[in-house]
């Protein structure tokens, strides 16, 4: 996906009705020795980092349970859409664990330190409406009979992104992600570097021409 220039948006959904991702198989985990557990979690953390580093926007469509590593997967995405009936939580402390695939870092960056600590310390599960109220998800929707309401809303959101200039969107994502990790002066410098890369693109010229000619732009990602 990283190197496929035809990909504009990636939507993560489940093929299992009622479950987005239920996290690690603890029965499988119980058979591992300490070294194997450490290796497993390290690989899982690397996978989440790879998802977070995808250059195009990513959307998690949470139509059911997103627990433990499942919520960490959703947190690795740029945007999250949830059915109001979905259940989410970093429940690791209820199993004698702590989040190990990015949850302790991405949740506080998403909802703030205080809420993140409360959710992780308690292992509490929340529904889609509660997640929306605290900013954990971008949108919440009532579940439909097919059980894919969040996926359908995610597709609508993806279709809003698709017409926009692909390279500009990628640079916008890069500037936000890198800038959030540094002070604002450094962030401004990162924005400037990303903007400079966008200046010579054909899409920028097309955007200006379309504005002058009062027509929709036809972006090509170059």
Automatic annotation (TrEMBL):
It holds the Pfam family ECH_1. One of its GO terms (cellular component) is mitochondrion. GO terms for biological process: fatty acid beta-oxidation. GO terms for molecular function: enoyl-CoA hydratase activity. The keyword Hydrolase does not apply. Keywords: Lyase. This is Enoyl-CoA hydratase domain-containing protein 2, mitochondrial. It comes from Podiceps cristatus (Great crested grebe).
